[in-house]
Amino acid sequence: MGLDMYAHYLHDAPSTPVDFTVENYGELHYWRKHPNLHGWMERLYREKGGQDSSFNCVNLLLTAEDLDRLEADIRAGNLPATNGFFFGVSDGFEVDDDLRFIAKAREAIADGLAVYYTSWW
Question: Is 8 helix (H, G, I), strand (E, B) or coil?
């Protein structure tokens, strides 16, 4: 049990930035128990109009601008301290992996794919 986090890609962008359903997707990146990144994503989800109270098993579209903001916050050490049942602890060693994700996501977007975040806990 714990926080499993995914970035997936779609060939066609969803019509809404949050809470959309998907059928065919490809996996882009995976994190295990990185709650501070999850907290950052939840904040973005709420900014984009997401209403799910638990922010679990919902989809969040990521744009190039979102990735720019995320990279700036990662580099500045500004991911929000986040905790939850079985979430684990972000310890700062995730930075290189997070930046690899951002590079892959930017490449996918440049190739015309849509990138989204989802999690399961």
Answer: strand
Q: CA 104, CA 17: separation in Å to the nearest integer?
A: 20
Concatenated DSSP letters for 50-119?
---SS--S--EEE-HHHHHHHHHHHHTT-PPP---TT-----STTHHHHHHHHHHHHHHHHTT-EEEEEE
Considering only CA atoms, give the Rg of the chain: 13
54-89 pLDDT, tens per residue? Answer: 999 999 999 999 999 999 999 999 999 998 878 998
- Is pTM beyond 0.70? Reply is yes
Question: At which residue do the structure tokens 């989809």 appear?
Answer: 59
